[in-house]
Amino acid sequence: QTLLERGHSILRMVRSASKGKYLEEYFKSYGDKFELVVVEDITAPGAFDEAVKGIDFIEHIASPFHYDVDNPEGISFTVVLYIKT
After folding, report:
1. Where does the pLDDT of residue 24 fall: very low under 50, low under 70, confident under 90, or very high at 90 and above?
2. 23-27, 48-52, 54-58 — most confident range
3. CA nearest 27: which of 14, 40, 15, 42?
4. What mean pLDDT comes out for the span 32-47?
5. Antiparallel, parallel or unpaired: β 34-38 and 10-14
6. What residues have CB less than 8 Å from 13, skipping those under 6 apart?
């Protein structure tokens, strides 16, 4: 919200349109400064390629997470891999 208040445009990625409805309503007063894009499978190679075209800065605030893991380091590697791609 602070970035919007300072005049920046925000592109928010969600995994489903239904998950973004609250955000669209909450930030509707900012008009076209707030945009929502759906990236259903954030673990797919190149999942963000189209979504981030023309973007100057990315603030990464979420990552793939699940409780079914035998090796906790595998989660860290996965997060780093997706951020780099």
Report:
1. very high
2. 23-27
3. 14
4. 87
5. parallel
6. 36, 37, 38, 39, 42, 48, 51
What is the model's pLDDT at position 66? 57
Q: Which two tokens stand for residue 40?
A: 């259903």
Picking from 36, 28, 38, the residue whose alpha carbon sits closest to that of residue 12 is 36
d(CA 9, CA 47): 21
Percent of the chain clearing pLDDT 90 (strictly above): 26
Residue type, 28: K
**Taking the mean position of all CA atoms in its chain, how far away is CA 71?**
25
CA distance linking residue 51 with residue 71, whole number of Å: 30
Phi, psi (deg, nearest 5) at residue 54: 80, 5
CA distance 5 to 71: 41
